[in-house]
Amino acid sequence: MRFWDSSAIVPLLGDEAPRDALLRLLDADAELLVWWGTPVECVSALARRERAGGYTPDDVTGALARLARLAEGWLEVLPVDPVRTVARRLLRTHPLRAADSLQLAAAIVAAGHDPASLDFVSLDERLADAAGREGFRVVSG
Length: 141
Prior knowledge:
Rossmann fold, alpha/beta, 5 strands, 11% strand, single chain, globular
């Protein structure tokens, strides 16, 4: 099992460059662990792409259907107090946005505060750097 950041989920939903490498990762280990807010972040990313003209409404509809199918099988780290506590520390330690700190905190809590025990899949450089500094083995596809 690996923890998947939203930045690594979104390319699985459309036809984006890192998709093939991420699909290989998924084929090797189909058990995804994500933060509770991942579906919202994915929809946000898809909506931004649509507004920017990169995705058509039909592209987004297809991507949302793929997101729903993917979400049926993944495990979610729920928004519990330990995640919020760790996220607050991460914001003081690393140059992260709030949602990124929550994702990284969810991974830390899921790993039982032993980041070396769980791979962290991310395409977001800032988040990947913070995850590596926290002790995760970072996989970028």
